[in-house]
Amino acid sequence: MKHGFRFGLVFLLLLNMLPGIGSAFSGEVPLGSGSYSTVLPPGATDVQSQIYKTSNVTGKMPTNDWWSSLAWTQYSNAQFPHPLALKNQSDGMRIYYPGNRITANSAAIAGWMNDIHDFTVGHSASATFPDAKVDGFNDWFVKALYQNGTNSMTATYGHGSPYIYYTYGGGNPVLKFYTPPTIWSGTSSSPVLGITMEGAHYALFGPTGSTWSGIGTTTLTNNLNGKNYFSIAVLPDNTTATLNKFKQYAYSHVTDSKINYSYNAANSEVSTTLTYTTTAKEGTQNGTIFALYPHQWKNTATPLLSYTYNSVRGTMKTGEGTSFTTKMKFTGVLPSLPDKGSYNKTTLGGYVNEEESLAYTGGNDTYFLGKRLGKLAVLAPIADQVGDSAAANQFRGEIKTRLQDWLKASDSSGNLKSSNLFYYNNNWGTVIGYPASFGSADELNDHHFHYGYFIKAAAEVARTDKTWATNYGPMVNLLIRDIANWDRSDTMFPFLRNFDPYAGHSWAAGHAKFDDGNNNESSSEAMNAWTGLILWGEATGNTTIRDLGIYLYTTEMNAINDYWFDVQDNTHPASYTPSVVTMIWGGKGANGTWFTANPEQVHGINWLPITGGSLYLTHYPSYTNKNYNAMLAENGGSTWDMWRDLIWMYRAISDPADAKAQFSSGIGSMVTGAPEGSGGTEGGNSKANTYHWIYNLDSMGNADPTITANSPTAAVFNKSGVKTYIAYNYTNAVKTVAFSDGTNVSVPANSFNTGSGGGGGDTTAPTAPANLVSTSKTSTSVSLSWSASTDNVGVTGYTVYYGGGSLSVTGTTATVSGLSPSTAYTFTVKANDAAGNVSVASNAVTVTTSSSGGSVITTPDYTAQVTKTGTTTAKISFTPTTSAQYVDVHYTVNDGLQLNLRMTLNGSTWEYTVSGISTGQVLKYWFTYEKSGPQYDSPQYTYTME
Description:
This protein is an alpha+beta fold. It is built from 16 helices and 54 strands. The strands form 14 sheets. It has an 8-stranded antiparallel sheet with strand order 8-9-10-11-18-15-14-13, with helices on one face. Strands 3-4-7-12-17-16 form a 6-stranded antiparallel sheet, with no helix packed on it. Strand 13 (182-185) and strand 14 (192-197) form a beta hairpin.
C-alpha cells in the first residue's frame, strides 16, 4: 500500500507539471497550456443578459452587425441595409429611402433618417407591439418578429435588398404616411400599387386577390384575402416596366443568404460567392433582385441590370438571380519589411537599443496592452536584421511572458485570476478579456481591434518557436474564433462576428445602438487583425485560418479603398470635400473620430499600426499624396504635435525624400518612451520601425499590386521600374515562390530571400498623352479627354495633375471634382505602365471654373440666396414655400470651422449675416429646416465673395 500511495503521489505531481494540466478552479476550461474561465472574474463588468430573440433562434447571436440593435434593445435603432433604411418601433417598421436625399459637405456624407420617413408598416389588429425580436438570421439578412397576443408580424430584410418581406397573423398590413402618397399604378381593386412619397418610389405587393382601402388618405390597408404574406420594394424609378420587373421577384421571399469564399494560391485570387435561397409565395419564380456595393460590382463578372440606387457608399448596381460572385486579388503581407533600406545600421541598432532598455509603463487593458504586444512584434524582426539577438530575444520573451499570463485564467495556485485573463460568456457566445476597455466587455465593442494585436504578436513568436505555438495555439485560436469564427458548426461563437460579408468590412460596436447605424473607425486596425490571422495560419501550418485571413484582408482592403479612401475618386459625392472618410457609419460617412479633432489623428487612425501588413497603403501613391496634402492644409503646416512618426512613414509612400527630411529634422526631439503628446512616438510605434519603414520605401519603392505571388507572404516593390521581389518562407525547407510576371525566387527555410529576386524589368516609359482638351465644366468640376498613349508592354492608366492635386484613372477621360468656383486650373496628364514607368506630360490645358455667384437658388421647398452687404459681410437668405417653425444655417469659410446657427425671421424670409469674409473667400453653406412637422436638410451650396 505504501508503494502504491507513493506511485500515485508521484504520478499526480508529474501530471500537474504537464502543459495545460493542473489544479483548476470550477469553471476553468484548459486549452493546451492555457485556459479560459466560464466564471466572471471578481469585480468585472459583464455584458447585459437580455437578448431580444425568440425561441426560433438557437445558435449564438451575432453581434457587431448592421442590425445588432434589434437584439440589444426593445425595438431597434435606425438600421441601414442599403438601399433602404428602417427602424423597428412600437407601431411597426418605419421605412425610408435615403438615396435622393443624401447630402454631403465638409463634415459628412449624410444619408440618415432624421425625423422623417416615407411610411410605417404596421398591423391592422394591433396598434402597438411590446417589442420586436430577432426571429432568425443568416449571413446578411435578419428576420424581426412583432408579437402582441395572437396578432403578429414578421419582417425579413437584408443588405443590398430593395425588398422587405412580411408575414401576418391575425390582421392585415397597414401603411401610414405623413401625407397621402401619389399612386401612379394600380387601384383599390388591384393587389399591387406603385406609389411615390417625397420623391421616393415604391411598389407595394399584396397577394393575388387582395385589395386596398384608404386610397387618397394617409393610411393604406392591404386586405390579404385569406393570405398571410406581403412585400414592399423601393424602386429605381416610377415606370410601369420597372414595377413589373420587380413584381417578377416580389413573391420570391428570401429565406437564407450565405457566402462561400476560397483562396487560389496559384493566381492569388479570392473568390466569394454570395447565394440566396428563396421561397415562392406565388408561382414558381426563385431568386431575387439584389443591389451591389461598388466593391462588389467593380469585381464581378455577373451580368447586371440597368437599375441603380444611390447610397452613402456610392452607386449601387443591381443584378438578379440566386447568386453572384466576386473575384479579387490578394496582394500579400510580410512578417516584417526586409533588410533592404538605405538606413545606417548603426543608427537603426541604436534605436533598437533604446527600446531594449525601456520598461513598459502603459495601460494593461486589452487594447493598450495589445498595442504593446504589437510594437514588440515589429521590433523583434528589426533587431534580428541589425544582428542584436539579445534585443530580439528580449522582445519575443516579453511577448511570450505577457501572452502566457493572459492566456491562462488561473494563477499558480489554481485560483481564478481577477485580471489578465479571458472569460467566456455562454449567453452571447463571446470571449471577453479583462481588464476591458472601450466597451469591449459591456458592449462587446472592438474585439477585432484588441485581439488582433494579441494574434499578430503570437504569430511573431510562432515564426521562431513552433513548440510555443503548439502549446498556446488553442487559446490563440479561441481569440480568432471570437472575432472571425469560420466554422458554421461551431456552437460556441457566431459566424464572422466582426466582419460583414456583404458590406465587405468590419463593424466595431457590438450593439449598434446608434441612429446612424453601426460604425467602424480604424480600418487599419481591422487590417492588422486580418494580417495576424494570415501570419498565424502560415506560421502554424493552419491553411484554414490563413485562407480566412486572406479572404477578410482582401475584401476589407477593397472596401477601404472605395469607402474610406476613395482612391479612384468615384465613390464619394463631389460635394464631400475632405480627402478621406475617417469613420464609416450605416447612415453616413464622417470626417472625424471618437476622440479628437486633431488632423494628424483624424487621418492617422486609418494608418496605424504601420507594419508589414500595411503594404496596401502604398498601392496608390497619388491618393496618398492628396491625402497628405489635405492633412497638411488642415494642420496649417508640417509642425506636427501628435503622431509625427506615423505621418513621416505615410509621407514616405508619396515622397520619400520629404519623409527623410522631416524624419532627420524631427527625430532628435523625439523621446523614446515619452507620451504621444510629449515628444514620444504613437503608442504602438517606435523610432526603429519609423526609420526602418521610411528608408526601406526609399530604397525599394512601393508595393506593386499588379504583380502577385503564389505565396501569401510575398510582395514586389517597384521604384521607377526597378523591382525588388521579397518573400518570406515559414517552412523548414527551401521554397520557390512564383510571381505573376514570370519571376521565380528561391527562398531559404525560415527566412527572407536574399538579393532583389529580379532585374530592372521593363524600363521603357509610355508615350505622352496627346490632344488634352476640356469637354465641360461646372463651378466645382472640370471634365477632360485626351488621346491614348502607347507602350512597349502596355499602358495601365493615367494620372491627371492639377493645382497640387492628382487623379488616377484607367481610361482616356476624367472628371476632376471638388474644385473652387471662378478659379483657373492648369491640367496635364501622364501615362503609366505596369513596371512603374511614367511618360512625360501631355500638353497643358488651363480652365477657369464657372462662378456660383449670388444667383437665386429655387427649389419646390424654398428659395435661397447670398448677397454681398459690405466689404466683409454677406447675407444668407432663405424663404420657405411653406412657413417654417425654424431654419438653421451651417457654413464654412474657406473650408474652415463649420458654424451651425439659427437664422432670424424677417417677414417671410429667414436671414443670417456672415461677417469677416474677404473678397475671393469661398462660403459653403446648407440649411436644416422644418416643414409641416418633419425636419429636412438641403444640399450644400457655394458662394465666392466678390
